[in-house]
Amino acid sequence: MSETLILGNKSYSANLRRSGSNFKLEIDDDSYDGDFERLGNGSLSIVIDGQRHICYSERKSNETYVFADGKNFVLRRQPRRTGSPVQEEKAEDLVLSPITGKLLDCRSEEGASVKEGDVVIVLEAMKMEHRLRSPRDGIISKITPVQTGGQVKEGEMMFELEDK
Question: Which residues is 73 bridged to in the sheet?
């Protein structure tokens, strides 16, 4: 979903799409492709255009505090307002694991048709079940290769949708 990011007194239109450890970040008219890795100390290693950056971040409400390359940033997120006749953006097609845990059940397969709200994958962490539901009607174009009982990392691709 496109959002407005406020950094200091400047506003930017931003859209971030992740797939596993890869991402595409669009800020205004610029586009960046990169990779990221979560490090053991809570930081992120981010590689953009061959340059590696170590970042720390903490989110509180609609603000994210970031320390990167020796500088502190405060990002404020604002959902993009709809009020124009332009069609609202479709729900995210990529569903990522919100937790590190075990894959309990995969209730669908590639090529299967799903409706908004259908449970596609069930994860378990700390004896709690997490049901990953389809954000919209569509066809599953990709699904995790992890087998039932296997480990899933936070941020890992669980499934991706395409139009019917």
Answer: 66
Q: List every span in the chain annotated with CATH 3.30.700.30.
A: 3-79
123: tokens are: 């994860």
- Determine phi and psi for 117, rounding to 5 degrees: 95, -10
CA distances from 164 to 23, 63, 115, 139, 157 (A): 25, 36, 10, 6, 20
What residue spans in the chain does CATH classification 2.40.50.100 cover? 94-162
Neighbour order of strands in the sheet with 113-114: 94-96, 157-162, 138-143, 113-114
Q: Reduced to 3 states, what is the DSSP secondary structure of residue 149?
A: coil
CA distance 123 to 107: 11
Token digits of residue 137: 């009607």
Domain 94-162 fold is OB fold (Dihydrolipoamide Acetyltransferase, E2P) (2.40.50)
Model pLDDT for residues 75-130, shown as the tens digit of each residue: 776 654 544 444 334 446 788 888 889 999 999 999 999 998 999 999 998 888 88
